[in-house]
Amino acid sequence: MHRACLVLLLILTASSAAPSAAQTPAPPEVSPAEPPPFTDWLEALRAEARGRGFSDALLDDAFRDLQPLERVIQSDRTQAELVPGFDRYFSSHVTRAVVRRGRTHRREHARVLRRIGARYGVPPQVLLAIWGMESRFGRATGRVPIFQALATLAWEPRRSDFFRSQLFDALTVVARGYIDVASMKGSWAGAMGQPQFMPSSYLAHAVDFDGDGHRDIWRSTPDALASIANYLHAYGWKAGSSWGREVTIADNAIARVRAAVPPRTDGCYAQRNMTERVPLSRWKALGVRAVNGRPLPASRTAAGLVVTGNRTFLVYDNYDAILGYNCAHYYALSVALLSDRIG
Ligand SMILES: [Ca+2]
């Protein structure tokens, strides 16, 4: 009946192994044209920015000495080729040292994590897991000047529309006085600070939680953690609920499970690589069990099935919020499992 579902269960849910810059879109498949000479392109960009009301002083500052960065282009072009399999991805990101550091940070920032949890409903271990995955708890936020990275990717034709719009958002970030050009550093893909926000995410979701008047996701840990919480909240995180759980399916139940629940058809790439959400009680009746072999609770919690390599998960609504941060199962499952280990 549901042949697509069978296919789905066989698909290893592919995911990018690149740094997980929130909201970086998947690379397009078409091969691009040659870009125009950079100086001509920059002149036109500058004219458009002036037309949008950005001051000459700001543009002088942001566009000073801009050159395309070859390593930015190379990183962007190779990211789609690195798909190592979930186990390798997971073991390289979620090491024992990362878990240990997460627990240390949990104690160290217990008070602010409690306050953030009270305001946004996201528990400490989830915030710490994203913080750890994105920037190794603020230790690796990227050293690339953001305007340099964004100008390179906006000039290069592959994803120029997306990065041109991020460039204008980056100008807005500076124009509003949130941060100065020199301090605005991040990854080769333009993801900034401890939560690795793209400029558009920064404008929409960054918050000032330590009350100094600046949304400083680069230097303030309270601002960074609260900004992650605000982001997840905006993507539908539900307080008091978890992300999901790892499960097992007995060999003699696999065919029944495959036939029973169709693939999901809405949402981003990873969301379309899982099943529809049905109540846990339904999965239980189909023979899906907790990973320790115990029966699932017969609850009405909606859960979708995610299969990656030889591991299987039932994921709840909060998992969608993690996919909102970065739509890739490898990433979201790593965040989820890391959060369990820290918690
Ligand atoms: Ca602040």
Please characterize this protein's 3D structure:
- The protein is of the alpha+beta class.
- The protein has a domain of 121 residues.
- Helix content is 48%, strand content 8%.
- It is built from 16 helices and 7 strands.
- The strands form 2 sheets. The protein has a 5-stranded antiparallel sheet with strand order 4-6-7-3-5. Strands 1-2 form a two-stranded antiparallel sheet.
- Strand 6 and strand 7 form a beta hairpin.
- Helix 8 packs across helix 12.
- The chain is globular.
- The N terminus is likely disordered.
- Bound molecules: calcium ion (CA).
- Calcium ion binds next to loops.
Brief write-up:
This protein is α+β, with helices and mostly antiparallel strands. The chain has helices spanning 3-10, 38-51, 56-63, 70-78, 86-93, 96-108, 110-120, 124-135, 146-155, 160-175, 199-205, 221-234, 254-260, 280-285, 317-325, 329-342; strands spanning 144-145, 185-186, 244-249, 278-279, 288-290, 302-308, 311-315.
Low-confidence stretches: 1-21
How do the strands line up in the largest sheet? 4-6-7-3-5
Radius of gyration, in Å, reads: 21 Å
Strand portion, in percent?
Answer: 5-15%
Helix fraction? 40-55%
Distance, first to last CA: 41 Å
Ligand set:
calcium ion
Main beta sheet, described? 5 strands, antiparallel
Category from helices, strands and their pairing: alpha+beta
List SSEs in N-to-C order. Answer: HHHHHHHHEHHEHHEHEHEEEHH
Number of strands: 7
Inertia-based shape: globular
Mean pLDDT comes to 89
